[in-house]
Design a protein that fits this description.
single chain; about 325 residues; mainly alpha; 17 helices
């Protein structure tokens, strides 16, 4: 049991770091004049293609696991996750396209632990402990320090892009909660199969959304589309990386994490995302790393450490209580 919980922690932490590569790849595509719509199509198409390959492999090697995933009660969770995922993709890539700095976009998304904590308590009846509240508070303090709201021009470089990133953070929380809700039907299914279905459904449900999006009176950097622009070897390669590191790896890790730990804990551990984004932005985009970034990043790491330490203590307490209850039960029988 403890080993599985540890796997959940590691998966959530690595998922956060993997997410950190997303704004870097998107910013690179933006600098090549690839619009948000074009980036979204690349990410959805490559993501669904990866998903089809995964399902084909399991159809050949593990038909029973594949057939279990076809049950309608299971597919409902995948469809809903796919729909949320496709909207999240457009919001995130649009935020970056509007020149919200990669590190800032990753930070603004981090409102999701608060939403997850509240909704998880209200809908899933997950327990709100002092350690969770403390972790969220420290993490949010770190986010405030990182974004430097006292420097107004730096903080709101693009108010529309910032608002899109904040909205994405809310949707992010609902994605985690839906994933947690769906585990009752997917716990016997390989996580690779689950993420494959989500990627496929994100393309299917995302097509109507992207069509509507393309007709909106928005700047060309958001809605421009040209096959000539995206059918270039370098752009196709970046699009594949966008789908692989921004979809398959992190969302697969989230599915693994939420099997073993509560959604609120997973959400807090996923706060490692901005650390990865800031690091990658510094290396690949030459974004400045200030002392405020370092202090804020340390706060987020501290929040993750508190989550792990206190949850381990809680696990030990529950194990001791379980053993005590079993002893009392056996004593009563004797």
């Amino acid at each position: 049991m403890q080993k599985r919980i540890t796997i959940g922690y590691i998966a959530a932490l690595l998922g956060g770091f993997s997410f950190g590569s997303l704004p870097i790849l998107s910013a690179t595509l933006r600098d090549y004049a690839i619009s948000s719509l074009e980036q979204s199509i690349l990410r959805l198409v490559f993501g669904a293609s990866i998903g089809l390959v995964i399902l084909f492999v399991f159809w050949i090697s593990n038909k029973d696991n594949f057939k279990k995933s076809l049950v309608f009660s299971t597919q409902k969770s995948y469809i809903l996750q796919g729909l949320i995922f496709s909207i999240m993709i457009v919001l995130y890539l649009s935020s970056i396209a509007l020149r919200t700095p990669a590190g800032e976009a990753a930070l603004l998304i981090q409102v999701h632990p608060i939403v997850t904590l509240i909704v998880g308590w209200f809908l899933l009846k997950e327990k709100v402990t002092k350690s969770k509240i403390t972790s969220v508070v420290i993490a949010i303090v770190g986010i405030i320090v990182l974004t430097e709201p006292w420097d107004w021009e730096s903080f709101l470089t693009s108010i529309i892009g910032d608002l899109l990133a904040l909205l994405l953070g809310i949707l992010y929380a609902f994605y985690i909660l839906v994933n947690r809700w769906g585990t009752r039907n997917t716990k016997e299914i390989n996580p690779s199969v689950s993420i494959a279905w989500v990627l496929i459904w994100s393309l299917i449900t995302g097509i109507p959304f992207l069509i509507i999006f393309s007709f909106l009176p928005l700047p060309s950097i958001l809605v421009a589309f040209s096959f000539e622009s995206i059918l270039k070897l370098g752009i196709i390669g970046l699009g594949f990386l966008l789908a692989f590191f921004g979809s398959l790896i992190p969302y697969g890790l989230i599915m693994i994490a939420t099997r073993y730990i509560e959604s609120s804990r997973a959400s807090i551990l996923l706060l490692t995302e901005p650390i990865g984004a800031i690091l990658f932005a510094y290396i690949f985009l030459n974004e400045v790393v200030t002392i405020w970034y370092l202090i804020g990043g340390l706060c987020i790491l501290l929040a993750a450490i508190i989550t792990i330490v206190f949850s381990e203590k809680e696990f030990e307490r529950l194990e001791i209580q379980k053993e005590s209850d079993e002893y009392d039960k056996n004593s009563f029988k004797n």
